[in-house]
Amino acid sequence: MKNIILKAALAVLAGLLTCSCAKEYLDTLPEDATSPGTIFETTTNAKLAINGLSRLMTKQYMSNQGYNGEGTIMSHYGNWPGNDLQRVNNTGNDYIINHEAHDQVSYYVDIFAWFYYYKLINNANQIIHNIDNAEGSESERQFIRAQARVFRAYSYFMLSQIYCYRWDDRNSAVNEGVGYGLPLRLDDSTGPLEKTSLEDIYKFIYEDLDAAIADFKASGLKRASDEFYLPDIDVACAVYARAALTRQDWGKAAEMARQARQGHALMSANDYMESGFSVPNNEWIWGVYDASDQTLYYYSYFAYLASNGSSGNCRNYPSAISQELYEQIPETDVRRGLWIEPTDAERKECNSAGISTKTLSKRAFAEHGDKLFSTSKIAMYMQIKFQNQDQPGVGSFNFFRAAEMYLTEAEALCMQGGHDNEVQKLLNEVNKNLDPAYSCDKTGANLLNEVKLYRRLDLWGEGQNWFDFKRWNQPIVRKSISDGGSWHMTFAKTIAPEDNYKWTFFIPQKELDYNNLVRN
Question: Is residue 191's pLDDT more than 90?
Answer without folding.
Answer: no
